[in-house]
Design goal:
The chain is mainly α and 582 residues long. Helix content is 72%, strand content 1%. It has helices at 2-11, 60-74, 78-92, 95-107, 111-124, 129-141, 145-157, 165-170, 176-192, 197-209, 213-224, 230-242, 246-259, 264-276, 280-293, 298-310, 314-326, 331-344, 348-356, 364-377, 381-394, 399-412, 416-429, 434-446, 450-463, 468-481, 485-498, 503-515, 519-532, 536-548, 552-565, 570-580; strands spanning 28-29, 161-162. The chain has a two-stranded parallel ribbon with strand order 1-2. Helix 5 packs antiparallel against helix 6 (129-141), helix 7 (145-157) packs parallel to helix 9 and helix 27 (485-498) runs antiparallel to helix 28. The longest helix is centred in the N-terminal third of the chain and has 17 residues, at 176-192. The N and C termini lie far apart (90 Å).
Length: 582
C-alpha cells in the first residue's frame, strides 16, 4: 500500500496531457534539488465524466508501454516505469507523459532522463509554468545556463516567481565567454524587467565573478537602498575586499550591524573579515559578542582560541579550548591545540597526553607525528616506534600514512640504515604499493642513493605507465644528477604528454633542454613554468640559463624578484653565489 501511495503522490493521480495541473502564479518557482514528495492520504473524489478528459490518440503499442509503466509503478519497479515513460514521451511527445516521466526521473535522481523529458514537456505545453520550471531546473543542473534562462524568463512571463539568482551562483564554474553570454542575457532581461530585484542581484553576482567590482558595487548599493538583504551585503563586502578597500568595508559592516545588531550571521561574517585583514582585536571583540549569545558554539570558541594563540594570549586560548571539550564541540581539535600550547610551554608530558586525545580528523596524523617526535627527542625512540605500530594496528585505513610518519621520523634524524630497513620490510608485504614505493624513492634521493630512487620509480612506471609524477621525478633526477640527458628528455616528454600544463614538468623540460645546451628552448619553457608557478627553484633555473646565455641583467632581476617572495631561499642564494664567483 505504501508503494501505491508513493506512486500516486509522484504522478499526482493524473492522466495524460489533459489532467496536468498548473501551479498558480503565487507559487514560488525555485530552481532547487527536487525534494522527495510527501505521501498524502487518499481523499474521496467525485466520479469523473469522460468529457472532462480528452483522450490522446495512442496506438496499441504505445498504450501497452503505458500500461507496463503503470503496473511497474504500482509494484514499486520505478526504474522500469521510467524507462517506458521516457520511450513514450520521446515517441509521442505527449506533454502529459513527459510530465510524468520528468517528475519520476527527478524523484529517482536520473538527470539525463529528466532533462530529455522536461524539454519535451516545455516544448509541447508552452503555457505551463510547471513545465518551464522543471526544464530550467534540469538545464541549470546540466550547466546549460543560456537555454535555462530562456525557460525561467517564460516562467516570469506566465506569472510565476522566477528565481534568477541561481544562475549567478551556478555561473561560478563558467569560463570568461560563458559569463559574458550570461551577462548579456541578464542585461537583456533587465531592459524588459528593470525593477526585478533578483535579476539585478544575479547580474551583480556575475559582475563580481567577472572581476567588474565597481559595477557590482553600483548594483549592490542600489539594491541596499530599499532593503538590508544579507546576500546583497555579502556581495558588497566581497566586491570591496576584491578592490582592497578594507577600511570602507569595515565602516560599511559596522553601520549595517548598528541597524541589525541581532543578526548573528552578519556578525560572524564581520568577525571573519576582521580576522582576515589581521585586525585580531576587532575580530576577538565580535566573536565574544557572538559567544555571549550562544556560549556553546564550537566554531566561535575555536576562532577565539586561534586568536588567543596568534596573539600569544595562551591562557585565553586554553580557556576556550577547554570550553570546546566541556561542551563536546570539536574536542579532538581542541586536544590537538592544547598539545601544541603545552609544547610551547615546554610541558612535554602534558603535550603528549593532549596529543593522545586528538580526534580522527585532519588533526590525527599531525598529533601522532608530534607524539613520536617528542618521545624520540626524549631518547625514547623505541617507544615512539611502538606507538606508531599500535596506531597502524588500530587504524588500518591510515596504514600507509603512518608508515610514512615513521619513515620521516627516522629520516629526519639521519638514520639511513634504519629507515631503509623499515621501508624494505613494509614494502616486502606490499610490493605494488605505489605510494610507499614513491616515498622510498624520494628517501633514496635524500640520502644520495640514486640506485634506490631509479629502481622504485621504474617499478612505479611499470605498474602504472601513466604515472606522470614518477616519469617526471625520474626524468628530472637523471637531468640534474647524471649525464643521461637524452633518456631524461624522453621521460619528461612522456610526463608532459599526460599533463601538458603542469608547471613542475615544464620546469623539468626547461632544465633538461639547458643540460642539452638548447638555451632558447630552455628559456622558453622556464619562463612559462615561472608564469604558472612562482617558485624559487624555477626562478633559480631560469636565472642560471639567462646568465649562462649572456643575459646577466635579467638573470639578476629574476633572482631578485624571487627573493622578495622567499627571502630565505637557499636554492637562490646558492646559484647566485656560485655564478657570481665565476
Amino acid at each position: 500500500m505504501v508503494r501505491v501511495l508513493i506512486w500516486l503522490a509522484l504522478l499526482g493521480l493524473g492522466g495524460c496531457a489533459s489532467v496536468e495541473t498548473v501551479e498558480t502564479p503565487e507559487e514560488a518557482v525555485a530552481v532547487t534539488e527536487t525534494p522527495e514528495p510527501e505521501v498524502q492520504p487518499l481523499t474521496p473524489r467525485k466520479m469523473p465524466h469522460p468529457d472532462d478528459y480528452p483522450v490522446a490518440p495512442f496506438g496499441k503499442e504505445v498504450l501497452y508501454k503505458l500500461l507496463v509503466a503503470e503496473v511497474a509503478g504500482y509494484r514499486g519497479e520505478y526504474e522500469m516505469a521510467l524507462d517506458k515513460y521516457v520511450d513514450v514521451a520521446e515517441e509521442t511527445r505527449d506533454p502529459g507523459v513527459a510530465a510524468r516521466a520528468t517528475r519520476l526521473a527527478a524523484y529517482l535522481r536520473k538527470p539525463q532522463e529528466a532533462l530529455v523529458t522536461a524539454r519535451i514537456w516545455a516544448q509541447e505545453d508552452p503555457e505551463n509554468v510547471d513545465a518551464h520550471r522543471h526544464a530550467a531546473d534540469q538545464l541549470v543542473k546540466s550547466q546549460s545556463l543560456e537555454e535555462a534562462i530562456g525557460h525561467m524568463e517564460r516562467v516570469k512571463e506566465l506569472g510565476g516567481l522566477a528565481n534568477f539568482e541561481v544562475f549567478a551562483y551556478r555561473a561560478a564554474i563558467l569560463d570568461e565567454q560563458g559569463r559574458k553570454t550570461l551577462l548579456e542575457a541578464m542585461q537583456r532581461l533587465l531592459q524588459k524587467y528593470p525593477e526585478d530585484r533578483q535579476l539585478m542581484f544575479a547580474k551583480a553576482v556575475l559582475l563580481n565573478q567577472d572581476g567588474q567590482q565597481e559595477q557590482a558595487l553600483e548594483l549592490a548599493d542600489k539594491l541596499l537602498l530599499d532593503e538590508d538583504n544579507i546576500n546583497v551585503i555579502i556581495l558588497k563586502l566581497n566586491a570591496l575586499r576584491e578592490l582592497e578597500r578594507n577600511e570602507e568595508a569595515v565602516t560599511f559592516l559596522t553601520q549595517v550591524l548598528e541597524k541589525l545588531p541581532d543578526n548573528r550571521r552578519l556578525r560572524l561574517i564581520y568577525a571573519r573579515f576582521l580576522f582576515e585583514v589581521e585586525d585580531l582585536d576587532g575580530a576577538r571583540a565580535q566573536y565574544e559578542i557572538a559567544l555571549d549569545a550562544v556560549p556553546n558554539d564550537g566554531d566561535v570558541l575555536f576562532a577565539l582560541a586561534l586568536i588567543g594563540m596568534e596573539q600569544l594570549r595562551l591562557d585565553d586560548a586554553i580557556h576556550y579550548l577547554d570550553q570546546m571539550i566541556r561542551w563536546n564541540r570539536r574536542p579532538g581539535e581542541a586536544h590537538y591545540y592544547l598539545g601544541s600550547i603545552a609544547e610551547q610551554q615546554n610541558d612535554i608530558d602534558r603535550a603528549i597526553r593532549e596529543y593522545r586525545q586528538a580526534g580522527t580528523g585532519y588533526e590525527f596524523l599531525p598529533a601522532q607525528g608530534r607524539i613520536a617526535a617528542l618521545l624520540s627527542d626524549q631518547g625514547r625512540l623505541a617507544e615512539a616506534r611502538d606507538h606508531l605500530d599500535v596506531m597502524r594496528a588500530n587504524h588500518p585505513d591510515r596504514y600507509d600514512q603512518l608508515v610514512v610518519l615513521e619513515a620521516q621520523l627516522l629520516s629526519e634524524r639521519g638514520m639511513e640504515a634504519e629507515v631503509f630497513d623499515f621501508l624494505d620490510r613494509v614494502i616486502a608485504t606490499r610490493p605494488d604499493n605505489v605510494d610507499l614505493l614513491y616515498y622510498r624513492a624520494m628517501t633514496g634521493e635524500r640520502f644520495d642513493d640514486l640506485e634506490v630512487l631509479e629502481r622504485d620509480l621504474r617499478r612505479i612506471i611499470e605498474l602504472d605507465p601513466e604515472n606522470a609524477d614518477a616519469l617526471n621525478a625520474l626524468g628530472y633526477t637523471l637531468t640534474d644528477r647524471t649525464d643521461r640527458h637524452e633518456e631524461a628528455l624522453a621521460l619528461i616528454e612522456r610526463a608532459l604528454a599526460i599533463k601538458p600544463d603542469e608547471a613542475a614538468y615544464i620546469d623539468s623540460m626547461g632544465w633538461v633542454q639547458y643540460r642539452l645546451s638548447n638555451y632558447d628552448a630552455a628559456i622558453s619553457h622556464l619562463r612559462r613554468a615561472l608564469e604558472l608557478m612562482q617558485n624559487d627553484e624555477v626562478a633559480a633555473h631560469l636565472g642560471e640559463v639567462l646568465w649562462v646565455s649572456g643575459d646577466k641583467q635579467e638573470a639578476r632581476q629574476v633572482w631578485q624578484e624571487a627573493l622578495e617572495i622567499k627571502p630565505d631561499s637557499e636554492i637562490l642564494k646558492e646559484v647566485m653565489d656560485r655564478l657570481d664567483s665565476n
